[in-house]
């Protein structure tokens, strides 16, 4: 099944009756912003990878190659739509205004998460695969509840939708199935956004599914669309069309965004062990940023000065990010004690008090030693 | 009309759910068959007719889905009360409960609260088939972030349910299904003790039996039977498994100097061992015998035709009390 593609790898835009009009509506500034976010994310990704190599991050999960899939999709949403990400939605996070150091908190292991989900309508990253697809369904049930009863008055509930992100590997998880059953049965305002980046660590997509993942939607009774995830314009157009339909009350929809993870799964694995150079080269030829830049350039939507400006901005982002990431303060374990529960819990309080006394004991010993005769 | 009524435990829980549904629009019920059928134990009987299909939600047959969507609703500000039909069917939802529900508040540095209540009919002695009689409390108590309580009377069931729903933390209520038909007085106006504290139900001087949920009436009967041997047994209803009110249990043990802990779950790796260790830490020098455990065996819950040999009864509790008396200190 051929994915929807508007922009060919050589940077030529094809005519498309259904999806073309969505692109035609974008202003020059909006078109340039798509490029800007993709370029910024790529720079952030490179910087994070090098920070990990230098031992400054515990782990990094690069999104290299998936910039168009993410930016195109999130640009199609309203800022009030809640996103439930996996752990690789860096471009989407940046788009929602999450700062690089907030994004990298988890990976520097100073905290489990670095931002307030409500502030950005972007939930924290989930490492247990697909668990968030059920939270997304529950959130969508909450939207329906708000709409029916107004029990939690929110101005925005009227046409709010939820985006549940998953990778191709996660589609094998049972929670995805249960989530889609709930979404379909209750006609939830949900968009499933599968980024098929071809590899679940070292296991190829064909081990998750023998047919296109987009076909899963049909089995649950809703529509799915397969899109070229390396084409930012097609990603935007498809997400805009589907989200409008979801907003209109037509129930859940699914996007299979066919893309490619050009880097490793995380900095802990070595992709040369499980995939060929030929495959990588093939996908490098489909690079989403180069493709889009060449189109912007050829149409005159962006000029050399603009690209230079974005380069400069990316450079600044990288150096600022390096400073701010290195300056991240680790969470105090006392704070961890305090957040296990919302309300007081006897055992947690006792252990917190014990640790305080225990550590104070060392402080006294040190003082005694220092104050003692030598 | 008096606020004190006589009712079975199942009806006390129904009343608690009704009162919370009425008190707070944000409270929702979700579970399999809880709507038109009123739940397999009829605990939610009539609630869907009263509050509508959108507040009493019949879910697809999917336990992970029930808990996972409850988490999502709670993230948005609702207070879902999820029913899992039977104890043994909680395991398909185990991941959502332990890796997501329990940790959400902490992993978001307190920014996201998930006030989900899970109602879990639990325990044996109902003569059912496999996966219908389990006692998974230690698994949940071991998971930081969850609260676990077990009522033993209609009064407790009523107030524990209400207190669980209004708590901002996730709470698992272990409803002792063999006691659903146990009748008792429920005072719907005056709150029972804090759901997260233990309670001395019967004063005694010679030994303490501490237990919770379905075995509380058994412990009270054992204490009564022990009077024939001139033994005065104190009975502590533990009530809250996490947090554990080890102070109240240890105080009783220090007073009577002998402690037997009983539960239906297997003793190996169970709550009894945790309680024994904590009481030993607090009151070792006051005890005349080691803390003894009475519980299930290290086996899957047996076919119901053998459950009478598996489950602690009055005799097993009294045997443990006898054993406790057989210890002689310093010999």
UniProtKB/TrEMBL annotation, chain A:
Entry annotated with the keyword Oxidoreductase: yes
EC number in record: 1.2.4.4
Keyword Oxidoreductase: yes
Keywords for the protein's UniProt record, in alphabetical order: Oxidoreductase, Pyruvate, Thiamine pyrophosphate
GO MF terms held by the record: pyruvate dehydrogenase (acetyl-transferring) activity
Domain (Dehydrogenase E1 component): residue spans on this chain: 35-317
InterPro entries named among the record's database cross-references: Alpha-ketoacid_DH_E1_comp, DH_E1, THDP-binding
Catalytic activity: N(6)-[(R)-lipoyl]-L-lysyl-[protein] + 3-methyl-2-oxobutanoate + H(+) = N(6)-[(R)-S(8)-2-methylpropanoyldihydrolipoyl]-L-lysyl-[protein] + CO2
Cofactor(s) the protein requires to work: thiamine diphosphate
Top-level EC class as recorded in UniProt: oxidoreductase
PANTHER family to which the protein is assigned, alphabetical: 2-OXOISOVALERATE DEHYDROGENASE SUBUNIT ALPHA, MITOCHONDRIAL
Family: Belongs to the BCKDHA family.
Function: The branched-chain alpha-keto dehydrogenase complex catalyzes the overall conversion of alpha-keto acids to acyl-CoA and CO(2). It contains multiple copies of three enzymatic components: branched-chain alpha-keto acid decarboxylase (E1), lipoamide acyltransferase (E2) and lipoamide dehydrogenase (E3).
Protein name per Swiss-Prot or TrEMBL: 2-oxoisovalerate dehydrogenase subunit alpha
Originating organism: Nesterenkonia halotolerans
From TrEMBL, chain B:
Enzyme's top EC category: oxidoreductase
Cofactor(s) listed in the protein's UniProt record: thiamine diphosphate
CDD domains xref list: TPP_PYR_E1-PDHc-beta_like
Domain called Transketolase-like pyrimidine-binding: residue spans: 7-182
SMART domains recorded: Transket_pyr
Key words, A-Z: Oxidoreductase, Pyruvate, Thiamine pyrophosphate
InterPro entries: THDP-binding, Transketo_C/PFOR_II, Transketolase-like_Pyr-bd, Transketolase_C
A Pfam short name: Transketolase_C
SUPFAM superfamilies linked: Thiamin diphosphate-binding fold (THDP-binding), TK C-terminal domain-like
GO MF: pyruvate dehydrogenase (acetyl-transferring) activity
EC number: 1.2.4.1
Name used for this protein in its record: Pyruvate dehydrogenase E1 component beta subunit
Organism: Nesterenkonia halotolerans
Highest classification ranks of the organism: Bacteria, Bacillati, Actinomycetota, Actinomycetes, Micrococcales
């Amino acid at each position: 099944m051929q994915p929807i593609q508007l922009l060919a790898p050589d940077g030529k835009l094809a005519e498309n009756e259904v999806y073309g009009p969505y692109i035609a509506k974008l202003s020059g500034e909006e078109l340039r912003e798509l490029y800007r976010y993709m370029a910024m994310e790529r720079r952030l990704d490179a910087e994070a990878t090098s920070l990990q190599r230098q031992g400054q991050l515990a782990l990094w999960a690069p999104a290299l190659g998936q910039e168009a899939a993410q930016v195109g999709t999130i640009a199609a949403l309203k800022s009030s739509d809640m996103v439930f990400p996996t752990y690789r939605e860096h471009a989407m996070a940046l788009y929602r205004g999450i700062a690089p150091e907030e994004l990298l908190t988890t990976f520097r292991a100073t905290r489990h998460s670095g931002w307030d989900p409500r502030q950005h309508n972007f939930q924290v990253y989930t490492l247990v695969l697909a668990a968030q697809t059920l939270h997304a369904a529950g959130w969508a049930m909450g939207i329906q509840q708000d709409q029916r009863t107004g029990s939690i008055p929110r101005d925005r509930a009227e046409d709010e939708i939820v985006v549940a992100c998953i990778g191709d590997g996660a589609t094998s998880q049972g929670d995805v199935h249960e989530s889609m059953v709930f979404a379909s049965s209750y006609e939830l305002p949900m968009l499933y956004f599968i980024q098929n980046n071809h590899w679940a660590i070292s296991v190829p997509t064909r081990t998750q599914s023998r047919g296109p993942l987009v076909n899963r939607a049909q089995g649950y009774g809703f529509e799915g669309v397969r899109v070229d995830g390396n084409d930012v314009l097609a990603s935007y157009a498809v997400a805009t069309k589907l989200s409008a339909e979801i907003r209109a009350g037509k129930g859940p929809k699914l996007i299979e965004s066919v893309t490619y993870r050009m880097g490793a799964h995380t900095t802990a694995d070595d992709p040369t062990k499980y995939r060929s150079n030929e495959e990588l080269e093939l996908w490098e030829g489909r690079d989403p940023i180069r493709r889009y830049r060449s189109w912007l350039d050829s149409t005159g939507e962006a000029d050399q000065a603009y690209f230079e400006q974005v380069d400069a901005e990316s450079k600044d982002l990288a150096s600022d990010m390096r400073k701010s990431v290195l300056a991240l303060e680790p969470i105090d374990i006392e704070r961890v004690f305090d957040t296990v529960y919302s309300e007081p819990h006897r055992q947690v309080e006792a252990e917190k008090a014990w640790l305080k006394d225990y550590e104070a004991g060392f402080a006294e010993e040190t003082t005694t030693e220092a104050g003692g005769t030598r | 009309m008096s606020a004190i009524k006589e009712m079975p435990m199942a009806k006390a829980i129904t009343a608690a759910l009704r009162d919370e549904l009425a008190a707070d629009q944000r409270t929702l019920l979700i579970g399999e068959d809880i709507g038109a059928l009123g739940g397999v134990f009829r605990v939610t009987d009539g609630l869907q007719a009263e509050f509508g299909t959108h507040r009493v939600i019949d879910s697809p047959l999917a336990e992970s889905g029930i808990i996972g969507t409850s988490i999502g609703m709670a993230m948005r500000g609702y207070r879902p009360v999820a029913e899992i039909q039977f104890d043994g069917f909680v395991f398909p939802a185990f991941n959502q409960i332990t890796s997501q529900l329990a940790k959400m508040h902490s992993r978001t540095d307190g920014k996201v609260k998930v006030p989900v209540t899970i109602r879990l009919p639990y325990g044996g002695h109902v003569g059912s088939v496999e996966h219908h009689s389990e006692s998974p409390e230690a698994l949940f108590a071991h998971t930081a972030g969850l609260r676990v309580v077990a009522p033993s009377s209609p009064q407790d069931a009523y107030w524990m349910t209400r207190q669980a729903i209004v708590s901002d933390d996730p709470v698992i209520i272990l409803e002792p299904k063999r006691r659903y038909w146990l009748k008792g007085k429920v005072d719907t106006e005056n709150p029972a003790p804090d759901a997260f504290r233990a309670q001395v139900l019967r004063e005694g001087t010679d030994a303490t039996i501490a237990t919770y949920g379905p075995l509380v009436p058994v412990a009270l009967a054992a204490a009564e039977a022990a009077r024939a041997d001139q033994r005065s047994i104190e009975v502590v209803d533990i009530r809250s498994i996490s947090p554990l009110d080890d102070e109240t249990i240890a105080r009783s043990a220090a007073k009577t100097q002998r402690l037997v802990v009983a539960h239906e779950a297997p003793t190996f790796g169970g709550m009894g061992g945790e309680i024994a260790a904590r009481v030993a830490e607090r009151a070792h020098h006051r005890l005349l015998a080691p803390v003894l455990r009475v519980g299930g065996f290290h086996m899957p819950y047996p076919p119901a035709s053998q459950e009478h040999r598996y489950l602690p009864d009055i005799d097993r509790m009294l045997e443990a009390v006898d054993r406790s008396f057989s210890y002689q200190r310093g010999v």
